[in-house]
Amino acid sequence: MAHSELWAQAAPPPNTMGFIPASISEIDVAFPIYSKWHISGQADVQFVTQGSYIDKNPFAYGQRFVFRPWLMYSGFKNLKLWAGYETNHKYEVKEAGNYETLEQRVIFMGSIAQKLPKGTMFQQLRFETKFFDDRNGVHQTVPRLRARFGVNHFLRQERPHPIFQDANISYYAELMLKFASDDYAPNNFDIFRMSVYYSAGITKNLHFLTGIIAQMQLRTNGNQFDVYYGPTLALKYTIKPKERETFDNVSGGAD
Question: What string of DSSP letters covers 116-140?
Answer without folding.
Answer: ETTEEEEEEEEEEEEEEE-TTS-EE
